[in-house]
Every structure is written in structure tokens, then in C-alpha cells.
Design goal:
two-stranded parallel sheet, Ribonucleotide Reductase Protein R1, domain 1, homotetramer, 6 strands, mainly alpha, two-stranded antiparallel ribbon
């Protein structure tokens, strides 16, 4: 077969290079698992020696350098076949090809790779969450002004903010684990789409590859691409979560509240004063690009028939790889930016000095103490805010006379001072999930506990996969003896 | 306050109209739940009469026509406030506003709406799955040629195909239920973002609204938009699944294998012979548009700070509504197209008569019977396919002499006939998830059983929500007595 | 014909409602133009009275209320046919249907609508540009610090920034006009796709509808959807341009440099001190949603055959309408936010007082005066920036001794003061497109001049279209006499 | 400066590798052009020898191997600086850095690259168009059935279809050229964003780099990313055009009408009969991935301030490269699939034998000859279609008696035969852009003529760019002498 040069250069060779780099081990694993399943067939048992030799040949292919791309082979699987045939002969190769199609083989390899990559995403998320929780633990008492609509909103604490983001990240971990569970099934044995008439034990192959089990329907096994949409969707969710966090980190850095570590900034070739928190910008773009890669993956399955396997097979692997690179790169950058940055306590304090964001609490206090309708309280406090601003005096220094001047009731000076203090504002909000240090600590502890559980789940899965890989990569005798 | 005409016309008035149409009941529900929570505060108990009157006023607002948009109010909540104040006075209104912000109120209303819409999606998916399973049950024995790469691939059955798609749909149901679980939490009591200092019982409000519980962190409660990304992602997954199914249904209709019901086709104003399966096309576009709406939702949260609540608040509701319309419309069309279409048995039979898609099985048979390497078998059968095509004879009519002529072994005529028969091809594939009728029946039964479980889960959630709504809409006395 | 209820409710009725609201006038225009073209056929000339009566019937349909949706008609065109037949009989209707297909008719109507909408976008862009230029004219001397990487970069002027954005907007105007030119061609006469055998004068119909000319190929005329991709792409470009402008306006508003007009802000129900520049946020989201709508339009044509006309026909009109609403809404909001906002001169001045962003110029000055390599100059100035920051002294107050202390050369105090003055920094940058007032004025004048030309082009097109519409809506006698 | 390992590994090193591979020549070109512009400054003229030496050093950097990535340099520009300084000393380097920022330098390099890539896209489009026109020339008389809504619509010719697609491709060429014109402007001399105070001649630098001219505003020059959106939008338009063409090619291949060249197909490892037109599938996916890459580019500029240069600077280059790879790969595959495929005349003929798609023409003929209303004609022909189908007789064999039997008028047998003949159907459609051979030939000639003009425009631009590159890469003396 001679392929057109354009087809070789645009499709076959780059796919071969890609497979050699990212998929070879998974390919050998899948073939070994298949061979061991074939070996259980009665006919094969009679020819055990040949099948053993076949596995031996695959083991040698694994450790040998990948054969360079040759214009006569369509893909890496054919190249491996060729080496195997040369090594152990055509009959042995026949046992390898028995009941095997590139359809189920490819889809299995892609899922093995997706499993690896999704676990890396989950670990990246847990690392970001750990960095958030570490900073939160250290800043349970660091009062800051939370902005809403780009304007100062209400006092809260750095920890309250970080714990909220850590909650979103936790949900992203959950999403990723649910996506993982759906892709953790083995297509092997589905052959072209109808299975084979050889009675291969698909449960066994799945177990050998460390999958939770086989995809039941053989048609579903090779033709469904929804597990890729899951991977794309996780990336979308994570990228949006992270883009919003980065937006705030950049703004805090711009306002001088957060100092990003030196090793994560860059100067300017022309502006000597510059110290740009570039790692954050580069993280942001990675998430934008991950969103685009996710779109590539989704579009590759859009308006195509169930039986078209190239679109979400070899052709989408590059997009999955880009998605992984961008996502893991972005998570790694966010994690180090969190770990290597310091909040500037002086700057936080300065930002509180002139704040009027405690206005809500003063209104609430007037309701509680004075028993007046919230309507009136809200109106008086609005007027007080305006009065203090007009006189260029900090809201926190308002005196009882000021309140009276705007038509409000008489408050004791201590009561008023407390009501307009950002620290008191925070301290009073002790309800479920509120910013008061004791509330935040309860929340952080719960997040830590569940984080431990997620780590446990990931470790458990990893152990299962590694055990399977080790068994497949050990000599067959070691395994069965 | 007088807003600029552009702001009124472009933002306030359309949002008011939208809220009046889609969100009013949820708004009243949330306010009643808040009032009942306020009523539990010691200070409120002392003033029970006022709080009772307040709830009464809200009940009247519910049943009264929505006040028309007025240029002096920013939104429906303010309009309701105004009516309440006129009805029961400023003091009562003060109790309503106590510890309540439009931030937590809005986010609660949006989640109540999203809950409703997501349940509708799940029901739509289950209806499509039921239509798939019904057709599958009726076509377990209908052999057809499955295409791969747009070329005839292997024989299978209509039921095998439909069951595979039903499996993907089942995973979409699972995705939607997982998304539902994450959005089924109440933001109420989070106020602007820091909760309040009034000690409101956030668990109680959540329970009154039929939520699984409150969002723990008050900041998370108002600032996180990830539940919307979940809704968008479910739409993406469903749309891709459906776009692929529709692609095949359209192709089968084009080939004459599937006759879409008359009530789902249209003729042409200029081509008298036309009978277009337009409902399928219209379904396809709805899924394309749902993908675009999903992108709108994702982009609305892209690169915005955690504290910007308009983007994923009022401004994204139109996109969520479009997404819902397109998705539910598409699912309804697919469901009726499946239910109202018939497979043309004659056309299926004709398509099998000349098929050479059993070639794989003949090769397998040669391996099994002749003990030859699969390599040789594959090569002989390839040559046999070419020979029969050259002689313009159906592959199924190949005779032992033909096989010999291409260098292959001698087969008994019966063995050969069976090996190239599409029906035998299918009948032999009895392994897990294979197309043989008994395998497909096992798979269909499992899908039905799990479908029952999903129906049960949805009914259970619906009952909880409806019970809460009924309680909120009943007079308070009825509830507490 | 009785359609399935799902098909009627999900497709036919909403499409009918949409067409009645947005497309009716275009439908009648296209039909009148077609009838006048038919009237030129020899056979029709013989039956002139009938054809005249036909046009009369169409005129009456235009002015009568649209018939309500009836479950027996598939679309508005059929409803119009029905009314016409009742009014002037079947023979007259036959002349209407001669050589006419819903394919060319629909595509024509959609392009007439797209023409309208695209011109509105261009006018919206020119209005935003005018607001930018007006503010720029008023702030040619308002020095401000330009940020790069979210950190203070270099001094420039408000006008320099605004003129740069006005340049991008100018290119968006150019894009929109180029897209307009491509869609300004008439599909009429293409019939189903192969034209007709009646010899209809397609140039005439195009001219009657005010198009620049007919789409040459009849197949292209009905099957190409690229003009929609153009519309979507213009929206993408405009939305990104605007999203970046809004980002800066929001940041300036957050920093107190820009005060958005009162009529474009909102307060808080719980935070009495709030004054949120919400119109900017709502603009931002409109552009995000326009991006999603653009994606819907693109996806509707993705992986569909050339002959599928529903996807980019009736089914995509809702997306085009959403795109238009969001885009025009966003542009209107940005325009008023620019027109109704004021830059706070005091705040700008305060932001300059402590700036060290003139560091580049001091380095340049050292090169020019001292003849030292830029390397050394850059290093000394970097050290000077650090020294002044450490001593908490404004960089602009650096003295010759400070420069010497960091190893630099001796400068005359006046030279140093000038070199670190933001105003001098700006004044010296008089090169092409630089921030110096005289440079900016040259740029602004050129932008104004070209803006006048764009306005002229739009007016010219509008006049052509309005003239055609007027002729079509006048009685035929008035036109021909 | 020591950067954090995560920053080096995730950002600096991959960017360095990318720049070394794709951008080095452009970097040197831009630096040489800058140096020659600096050389025109009076101060530099005095030091001519140093500036000459500087250019010499850059020439040597160009021809030397790129220095390997070192963890102490942030990017390739710094690495080049370092080599230059070592070669010709710090003073010379100072002249290089004068008035130069990485901002204008980077943006210039990226535009030089984008120019190259966009020209390649235009050439790829023209090659596809040429292949379409070649096949069209050869199939002006090949009658085929055009499908609408996936059902047989009307007869036309292969050439009529291909010419229609060639028209869409022509508009894509126009789009790409317009995008090219907008990006063909030089940012050089804009420095960080405010230009410099050195009086560098920005027109000269632009001319030296073969740009049409400089970007006027220095702020616009470095901060605008709209030229990237243009590149992305062209890719979107081209991808959609191509996805639709591929959809039809795949369908024709599936129906046996089109035989894709052997070198562009693949067999199956398990299905011996297979001959999959895989090159078409791989083309399709490339366009889906190009759409995703376009989205990445768009999103990288979404909701970021005007002053953030990393997002659409280094960080988006990978997306632009992916977009280019996918787009050029897809175009190359489509071009060879068109050039290396043959239409199967027998299959086309067979598909016409039983067609009823001439029904429209029979109705038209009845109107013309019989003078009956189109209504009646349409109804009679619809009934005739049904009658022939019921009796399983080809529509083309209908006889006058059949027409009478369904209530229609009496036609002469010759007239009837002609009216239902696909070839006559086509031959009669001689109007502007119709399928009749003479009409299609006129259209094809016009497309060829304009294609020549487009080729001329591209050659002209290429010559200008190559001349500039040659001058920059020649020794300065050769240029100026």
C-alpha cells in the first residue's frame, strides 16, 4: 500500500510520532492483556508455547526503541505487528490478531491515557486546594474588604474568601472523579463493534488492565465518545473556577495586597521599575486555551455518525494532549503562586482604615437596638455614608452626633464604634459558613477532612492501576505462579 | 433614582419581564421561606403578628397579577417590596429585609429555576431512552449492516445499535443527576456574602425550600457559578450524544431504511415528490444551538472576579432559558421521531443481500476450523471479496471453489454458507454485550432495570420539591398545625 | 396534513411567531419583487391584470394583521398564500408560485433581515467610536498611568488610550462593512437550487430588493451559509474589542479614576454605601452572550451537507436575533457609559504623584545626555527606583545625589526633574502615534475624517435600501409611471 | 534572577523552544530593521561603526545554532542580547535596546509569523479552489441528483455543485486577504506602548520589514489583539465551508458515486472487505480542531485589559500554530481528495434512472403548455409521483395515460418524456447561475478569471515580503550601495 504523500505527511507520520511518544506503553499493555485473554481459550491452551512466545515478543518490543516511522505502515500497531511477526512468526501473530480490531484496541489505549491524565488533573486540583487551605489557615484573622461589582462590598477575611474557593475546587475534584469513573471501563473484546465469535473473556481483559470492568455493549465500547466530553467538561469547569480565582489574585497583586513570589515575576526590558506577576497571567491564558481545547474535543464528535471512529480516535488525541498540558500547567502555576505569595498585612490594614463597608452592620444594629424598621435604618446609614464622604472623614470615625444629624437615633459611642468596625463586623458573623474565625475554622476542618478522603480515593485507584501495569509488565510466569 | 433610558430599555425592563414570566413563583417561595425563618428569631416571635401579616401579604402578591414594569423600580423584588409595604407597612417590610440581600435571594431563585429545568432535562432523557428501548425490544432480530468510516462494516442488529445509544443516554442521565445534586443547595442566609449577625437558621430555610441543605460558606453561596457550568456541561454532553444519533437516523431515512412518521415530515412548495424528515433536522439544530447557549453560560463566568454577581446572575438567565428551550425541544423531537418511525424490513433485507460485511467471520472461521494463522485467513478473504466484486456476484453466494481459487483451503459448502451469512454472523456473537439476540436481551433488561431506578430517583426528588412548594404555598397555619 | 403535536409546538408555532414578528415585511417585499419579475415574462404580460391583482393582494396582506398561527399551515409563507388565494383566486396564486421555492424565498428574507441588523451594528459601532473620540478630544492633556501586566507601566494620556481603542473600533467597522458587502446579494430566482426554466430576470429582482446584485450560482444562492458566519465573526471581533475596553473602564471606576453617570449605577438592598457601575457589568455579559450566540450560528452549519437548508435557515434565526439583541444592547450600554462618565482629574493627578513609571525616560535621557550604553542606564535607574521605594520617597522627587548614590552619573537637577516628570514624559513622545498632545490630535483628526467616510458609506447603503423598500411598498403604478 | 522551577518548566522553557523553532528568523529580521532605523539617528551616525558591528553580530546569530535554553534567560530575545553583547560589547547592545521594548518587538514578530501563515492559508484555499474548478470543468455534463434535507431534490450537474462550492471558497479567499491587509502593519517603534523620545522613523522600520506601513497609534500597536481574532475568524469560515464540502464528499463516497484515490484510503485489521475514505474523515476532524483552536485564540483576549500583552502574545502562539497546522493539513487533504478522486459515471447514471426529482419541471411544463395554475400542476404531479411509486415504476417512464389517470391534462408523449428527463431538466435551466452546461461554463470562466487575480495579489504581496527579507538578510552594504 502506498499512501499519498499528503496523507502520509499530514496524518500518518504525525500520528505515528504522537503514538510513539505518548501511547506506546499503553499499546503494549493492551496487547499483552489481550494475549493473556486469548491464552485462556481452549484452542490456545493447546498451543501455549506459541502464545507465550508472543507475549515474550511484545515484552521485547516494549523495551526496544520504537521503530522509526516507515511510509509503508499505517500506524504504530502495524509496526509492532511487523516486529512481532519477524520475531515469532506469522502463526503467533495470528493469535495476536484473533478477535482484535484496531477499533477496540485504539479506544482502549486512549482510555488508558485518559485515565492517567484525569488522575493527574485530580492531583493538580488537590494541590491547589491544599495551597488554598494552607493560606486560609494562616489568614483566619486577616480582615479584608470583599468587593462586589468591582466596588468595596463588606468586610470579610482572607480565609473566608480562600475557603469559599476551596469549596468550588472540591466540587471540581468531585466532577473529575465522576468523569473518571465513567471512563474507567474497558472496550477490549469489542473488536470492530460486534465482538467476536471466539468467546474471549472480556471481564478478564478489563481486570488485567486495571479497569473497573468492561464496557458492556461492544458497539458502545468502540463508538461512544462521551467519556471525552466528560474530560472536556471537567476542563471547562476547572478553567472557569481558576480564571475567576486568578482574576482576584491579579487584582490583589495590582492593589499591593498580595505579593507574588520573586521567582514568579518578570521585569521589563524597557521599564526598569517593573515587577510583573506574570505567572498569574500565564496561568490565566492556559485556562483560556484549555477551554478552546475542550471545544475542539466537543466539536470533533459533533454531527458525526456513531460509526466514525477517527474523529474521536487518533484525531482528537492531540486536542486531549493540549488540554492536558494547558490544564496541568495552569494548575501548577496557580498552586505555586498561592504557595509562594504573601499577603501584605499593612496594606490590608490600610485598606480597612477608610472603608465604609460596615454600613450594613450599622443598619442591622439600629434595627436590633432601636427596633426601627430596616427601611429607616438603611436610609439613615446611606445618608451617614454620604455625610462622612462629603466631609472627607473615614466612616469608622463617625460619631453619634453624625447619626443624629442625618435624622437617625442616638447611639452610645461604644455601640456605634463597634458597629462600624470591620473586625467587629466579621466577629459577629458566626453563623454557618460565615466569616467569623470560629466559623471559618469549622469549614476549613471539614474541607481538610474531605480532602483526605479524596486523596484516599485517588491513591486507591492509582494503586489498582499500578498493580495491573506491574503485572502486565512482569513476565507472565511471575504473575501466574 | 432615575436610570438612563438605555439602561432601562436594555437591562431593567427586559429583566423585569423575564423575571415576571419565569421566576415570580420562585421569588415568592424564597421570600416566604425567609420570612418563616425570620419568624423563628426571638425578637420576631414577640412581634409574631407582624410577621404573619407579612407572609399574608406575600401570599396575596403571588395570586395577584404581577405589577407592570415601572421605570422607578430596578427589579421584580423591589416591585414586590413596594406592594408589601403598601399592604402591611414599613415595619413589616423591615422584617422581610432583615438579613436578606438580593445576592442570596437572586442566587436562590436561579437555583430553584435550574432545579426545575434540570429535572425536566432528566425526564426528557429518560423518555428518549424509553423510546430507544422500545424500538430495541421490537428489533432484537432485525439484522442490519453497521457502517464504520461511512462504509459498510459488519452485520449487527437494530437493537444492538439502539441499546448502545441507550447506554450513552443512561450516562447522560447520570451526569444530569450528579449536576443536580451539586446545585441542590440553598444560598439563603448568605446575605451579601458574609451572612448576617442575626442568627438566622440557614438549615431551616434550605429545608423549607426543599433543598438538600444549605451551601456551607456564605461567600461560596453567592459568588460561585460552577453549578451553571454543570448545567451547561450536561447540555454539551447530551447535545453531542443526540447529534450523533440524529446523524444516523437521518442517514437511515435517506437510505430508505427508516420511515419517519408522516406528522414529522414536510413537503416542498416546488418539488412535488418531496417527503423531508424535517423533524430530525430541526432536532439537530436545536442541539447545535444548545451547544452555543452552553458556551454563552461558560463565557459569562470567564475571567471575572469572584465578586461579580451580575454576570452569572440576571444576565445569564436568558442563556439558561435558551439552553433549556433548545435542549428540551430537541429531546422531545428525537423522542417522537423514534416513537413514530418504522424500520423498513424489506429495505433492511435488501441491504443485506449484497453485503460482504461478513468477511471478518469467514476469516475467523478459517482460523478456527483450518487452524491457519489469522494473517493468511485475512488475506484470502480479502482476495475473495475482490473476486466476487469483480464478477459482480454477492459475497454471500461465494462457493468453496471461489475460496480455493484465491489460494484458500477447502471448506464444506454448509460451513462456508454459514460463515458468510449475516444472520449467522450475528447469532454467533453471544459474548458480553454482543449483537446476538440473547446478549442484547440481557443488556436491554439491565438498562430497563436501571432506568426504573433513575425514574425512582427523579420521582423521589420531585416529591420532596413539590412537598416543600406546597407547604410554602399553603397558609402558614395549615403547615404548622 | 396534520403534524405531530411535538412538531407543531416545538418547531412550527414558534417559527411562525418569530416570522410574524421579525420577518413579515421582508417576506412581502420579496414576494412583491418576485411578482414584478414574473410580470415581465411574456406569458404574464398577456395576463397582466391577474398579476396586478396578485400584487394588490400582497399589499393588503402587508397592512392587515398577520393571521394567527393555524395548525394546518407549515409557515407564514403558506399562510400568506392562503390569504392570497382566497382574495384573488388559484390562478393568480399560480403566478406567485411560478419559479419560486421556499428555498430562495427564505434565504432572501433572512438576508434582508441580516442586512438590517448588520447596518444597525455598524451604526452602533460608529456611535461608540464617536463617544470615544469625544472623550479623547476632551482629554488630550489628561496624563494617566498606563498599566501593563496589571502593574503601572508608563505615563500616557487618557486620549492616547481612547484613540487606540477608537482605532480598533474603526477596524471593526471595516470588518462589518466587508461582511455586509458579502451578504448584500440576492438569492431570488434560484428556486429550489437549480433556478427555473421560466427565464426570470434575477438581476431585476435583486435590484427591486435593493441588493447590490444577485448571487450568481443558483446552488450557492440557497445552500451557502457563509454570510451567517460573517455576521457571527463580526460579533466575535466586536465583542472581544468591547470586553477589553469594558475591563479597563471597570478597573478605572474601581480605582476612582472614572465616575460612571448616576443613571447607570445601582445601589444595594443591604449595603447602604454601594454605588455599583452596573451598566458596565451588564455590557460585559452581553458581549459574552454574543460570543455564545456566534458559536450557535457557527455550529448550526458545522458538519452538515450543502443541501440542508433548515439548519442555517429558520432554525438559526433565533440565534441571529439573540446575537443582535446582545450586541446592540452591549454597544448601546458602552456608548452611554462613555458619554455619561467623567474622569476624575484629582484622582488622575494623585495617581501620578507617586508614580515611578517615568523610569524608562530617565534611562533614555542618560543615554542621550551621558552617551552611556542603555544597559548601564537601565541598571542605574532600576537601582534608583528601588532606593526611592525603600526610603518611601516618590520617584519624581529623586535628586541628583540619589542617582550618584546608585552608581549613576551626575545630572543637572532641572534635567533630572524633567526626566522623571510624567508630563514631560508624555510631551516628549511626539513621534507617529505617540501620546504627546500634538501627535494624538493628528491621530484623532484622521479617525474623525475616516469616521465621516464610514458614515457616508452607511448612509449611501441605507438610502439605496430605503428607496427599494419604498418602491416595493408603493403601488406598482406609482413606481412604473 | 532565578525563576521558580514550575515557571521555568511550564512557561519559559516551552516558550523558548517554540520561539527557536518558529520565530527566530522573524526575531532577527525585526532586530536588524530596528538597528538600521537606529542607525539613521544623528547620534548613531556618529557612531556608525558600532552600529554596523551590531548588525554584523545579529547576522552571525542568525546563521549560528540557536543557543540552548538556559534557566537564567527569560526568553530568546534575551539569549540573543547576551550573544550580541559577548560579541560586540555592551555599548553596541545599548544601541540595540534604544527605544525598543519586548512589547513592540514581540508583537512585530508575531505579526510577521501571522503574515506568513495567512498567506499559506490563502494559497491552500486557492489550491482547493483550483481542484474544484478542474473537476467542475470535467463534469459540466455529468448530471446528478442534488439532495435537500437528505432526500433527493432536483437534477443538477456535478459541475454546478462544485462551482457553487468554489464560489464560497472564493469568498473565503477574500476574507483571508482582508484579514491579511489588517494585520500587515508594523508595531515597531511603539516601544512599551508610548513610543520613545528618540525620534525613530517608524515608517522606515515598517518598510524595511515589508509591511504595508506602521500601526499609527503606539498604544494600538502593542495592545490590540484584533488581528488575531481576524486570523481565528478566517479559520472559522474556512472550516465551516470545508466541513460542509467534506460532508457531501463522504456521502457520495458512501453511496459509491465518488471513488477516493487509493492512496487516501485505509483498510481494516479485522474487516477484509474494507476500503475507508479516511483522508476525508481526517480532513473533517482537522477543521473541527481548527474551530477549537480559533476559540482558544478568541478566549485568550476575552475579558482582559488592553494592557495585558502575555495573553495574546507568547501564550497564544501555540494556539495560532495549532490552528495553522490543522487548517493547512485539512486544506491539503481536501485538495488531494478532490484531485485524486473520480466520479463513477455508471453510478451517477444508475442514480438517475429511478429518480423522480424532475417533478418540478413537469409541473412547470404543465403551467407553460397548459396554462393551468401552478397549484393544480403541483397537485397532479404529486399524485403522479405517488402513482408511479405505488406501481414500482420509474417516474421517468410515466406515460400520458398516467397523467390523465391522476386527473391531469393530456400531454404529447415527447413533451412528457422531455419534461421528466433529468438531462432535459438541466439543459433547460440556462438562466444566470443555473445548471445548464453553458451557464455553468460562464460561471466557471468568471471564477477562473478572478482566481487569477487573487493569485496575482498573493504573488505581489509575497514578492514585497521576500524582497524585504532578502534585503534584511543581505549585508547592509549590499543594500545601501
Amino acid at each position: 500500500m502506498t499512501w499519498h504523500a499528503a496523507y502520509r505527511e499530514r496524518v500518518l507520520e504525525p500520528d505515528y510520532t504522537f503514538a510513539s511518544r505518548h501511547l506506546k506503553d499503553h499499546l503494549i499493555d493492551a496487547l499483552v492483556a489481550h494475549v493473556r485473554t486469548v491464552a485462556e481459550l481452549p484452542a490456545a491452551r493447546e498451543r501455549g508455547g506459541v502464545v507465550d512466545a508472543l507475549e515474550g515478543a511484545l515484552v521485547r518490543v516494549r523495551s526496544a526503541p520504537t521503530p522509526p516511522y516507515a511510509p509503508t505502515v499505517p500506524d504504530l500497531y502495524y509496526a509492532v505487528q511487523h516486529v512481532v511477526a519477524e520475531s515469532v512468526g506469522e502463526e503467533a501473530l495470528g493469535w495476536l490478531r484473533l478477535g482484535l480490531s484496531r477499533n477496540d484496541l485504539d479506544m482502549t489505549i486512549y482510555k488508558l491515557r485518559a485515565r492517567e491524565v484525569t488522575l493527574a488533573t485530580i492531583r493538580g486540583l488537590l494541590a491547589v486546594q491544599a495551597a488554598l487551605l494552607d493560606q486560609a489557615d494562616a489568614h483566619v484573622d486577616s480582615v479584608m474588604v470583599a468587593y462586589t461589582h468591582h466596588q468595596p462590598g463588606q468586610p470579610t477575611t482572607v480565609a473566608h474568601y480562600l475557603a469559599a474557593v476551596a469549596s468550588v475546587v472540591e466540587r471540581d475534584v468531585e466532577r473529575a472523579l465522576q468523569a473518571f469513573a465513567r471512563l474507567d471501563t474497558s472496550p477490549m473484546g469489542a473488536a470492530a463493534l460486534a465482538g467476536s465469535s471466539h468467546g474471549l473473556d472480556r471481564d478478564l481483559t478489563a481486570r488485567l488492565l486495571g479497569f473497573a470492568g468492561p464496557v458492556v455493549s461492544t458497539y458502545d465500547a468502540v463508538a461512544a465518545s462521551d467519556w471525552q466530553i466528560d474530560v472536556a467538561n471537567v476542563a471547562v469547569s476547572v478553567s472557569i473556577t481558576m480564571s475567576r480565582l486568578v482574576c482576584d489574585l491579579v487584582a490583589w497583586s495590582s492593589q499591593g495586597l498580595l505579593r507574588v513570589g520573586d521567582g514568579l515575576t518578570q521585569g521589563s526590558s524597557i521599564m526598569p521599575q517593573k515587577r510583573n506577576p506574570v505567572a498569574l497571567e500565564h496561568a490565566r491564558t492556559r485556562f483560556s486555551r484549555a477551554l478552546g481545547a475542550a471545544q475542539s474535543i466537543v466539536l470533533s464528535s459533533h454531527n458525526i455518525p456513531f460509526g466514525d471512529l477517527n474523529d474521536f480516535g487518533p484525531d482528537v488525541q492531540g486536542s486531549l494532549q493540549t488540554l492536558h498540558n494547558q490544564l496541568s500547567g495552569g494548575l501548577a502555576l496557580v498552586q505555586v503562586c498561592l504557595a509562594e505569595s504573601t499577603f501584605d498585612d499593612d496594606a490590608l490594614t490600610r485598606s480597612l482604615e477608610r472603608t465604609n463597608t460596615t454600613a450594613t452592620e450599622l443598619a442591622d444594629e439600629l434595627v436590633r437596638i432601636g427596633g426601627c424598621p430596616f427601611q429607616d435604618a438603611h436610609r439613615w446609614v446611606g445618608a451617614l455614608v454620604a455625610r462622612m464622604a462629603n466631609e472627607d472623614r473615614p466612616f469608622a470615625l463617625a460619631e453619634p452626633a453624625d447619626l443624629i444629624a442625618v435624622g437617625g437615633p442616638t447611639l452610645h459611642p461604644d455601640v456605634l464604634r463597634d458597629a462600624v468596625s470591620p473586625h467587629a463586623f466579621v466577629a459577629r458573623r458566626t453563623g454557618l459558613g460565615g466569616p467569623a474565625p470560629e466559623s471559618v475554622r469549622v469549614h476549613l476542618r471539614a474541607l481538610r477532612d474531605r480532602s483526605d478522603e479524596y486523596h484516599g480515593a485517588v491513591d486507591h485507584i492509582t494503586a489498582r492501576i499500578e498493580h495491573a501495569a506491574k503485572s502486565l509488565r512482569a513476565s507472565r510466569k511471575d504473575v501466574t505462579s
